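Milestone M4 deliverable, item 7.
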Amino acid sequence: MATKIELTETVLRDAHQSLLATRMRTADMLPVADKLDAVGYWSLETWGGATFDACLRYLKECPWERLRTLRAAMPRTRFQMLVRGQNVVGYRNYPDDVVRAFIERAAANGIDVFRIFDAMNDVRNLKTAIEAALATGKIAEGTVCYTISPVHSVDYFVRVAEELAALGVQILCLKDMAGLLQPYVAADIIAKLKARIALPLHLHSHCTAGLAPMTYMLAIDAGADLLDTALSPLAYGASQPPTEAVVAALRGTPRDTGLDLGRLDELARYFAGVRRTYAEFESAAANQIKADVLVSQIPGGMVSNLVAQLRQSKAEHKLDAVLAEMPRVRADLGYPPLVTPTSQIVGSQAALNVMTGKRYSVVATETTNYVMGLYGRPPGPISAEARQKILGAKAPITCRPADLLEPGLETARREIGSLAASEEDVLSYALFPDLAKEFFLARSR
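Output delivered:
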């Protein structure tokens, strides 16, 4: 990488996922697509994460059509997506054939950079997706999920990164999804990574606890090469640091981004208007600096969605109790990093514990599957008491979870039949059968 800092703009994916419950429509992206394409970003994050199922579930849009439409409108800039390893863009493990086909079709439809992570940092769950991304000739960005716990040390993060480098990734990402990464800790981790592994380092963080802008500056000094930022109307709070501020802070230095603040200001004025149209999906929890995230560790992308879920149950007033219960559930489950899907597992179980008033009297299926080992290897030991309540006499698995899965692509193709108009439709059905079928039926009317 050159000495200048390169930026990935998140306004089309993580920024609105974090602040607006993933509700931004393609129609609100297209009017400034040419201007985004002209900025000179290293990449635009346009796809993946929760945007795939949100398109089907809430927006009644085809996620593949969104990707193709954006790609046609922005031909010059790299497109980046977030892949949940063996979970792809879903909330459970999928068979290897589905993972490979999804990556191949995503590349063919316009994705250039695959940021691939696993909620457990279990590299066994990353291997298939990384190999598939490399086979397309695109960029595989191997991701280390950052968190704080008694079992997560600097040496732990370096070890995971070395395992990713051994798989052939071209870039490493340190993913601070909950905004927990403190400036001097970031400098320590990044310096050690850069000393041990000859790969570019991409840093992703959120402003949830107010630390990220300071963390970015020390990360730059420690040798970070790329940063995730969001245009200012969709920055701060549970989102990323503002693009304009990072560009301004580095102007005239050896690490100057070279980006034009005038272009960014024009884009910021547009997205300020867009944000107002989605005001109903905002929440105070997602917009405020919340130092209590250092305790709850809830990631930026989940804050607004958790509030929405509690609101639907008329239990928004119990948010603080759920946030207080989350670290206790997390400790019981062996301190998983809180990122999709483990954040949802811990958050949902914490909500059940609070709503019922008795811990683990009601256990979500996903919690049971987690304790069974079906999401991967927990970073630390699971509480014996919690395991007994959840599994009883059953023993958890020890193999890679996907090894237990039969191939799924042909089954999906056979089940969906003529309702699928393309290979992409087959994949949508393989990932989200009910949502996709409902979407296809509505489309055919």
